[in-house]
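Reopening this ticket.

The earlier resolution said the output was attached, but the attachment link was broken on my side. Pasting everything inline this time so it's all in one place.
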Amino acid sequence: MSLLIALLSAPPAPLPDPLAAGWQGAPVCEVLHEDARQRVLRCRFAPGVGHERHFHAPHFGYALSGGRMRLTDASGSREVELATGSHFASEGTEWHEVLNVGETEVAYLIIEPRDRAER
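Inline output:
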């Protein structure tokens, strides 16, 4: 019984960042560039491929090739059409997961600035 109580009271495991998160054991993002100021990732999703639950630090995103994605986060699930060339800035995401529900590959860049305090 004490093992069950310990398991139930243990803090949840921390979520992976977008590079560490993948899909069914395979990576979906790769590092294109990393230095003391920033990290640039390219993430690619063939139809039916997603990105398991993960968090994001503040970042800028740019769609290299768009398509239809299902996003799930604390507010629920929704499908969005991501247009090629669209972009956004985010102050960070506590958690989300995505799935390519369209018929084309979706690819985008994530540019994460490094915290100046870390330098």
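Reporter confirms the inline version is readable. The first helix runs from residue 2 to 9. The first strand starts at residue 22 and ends at 23.
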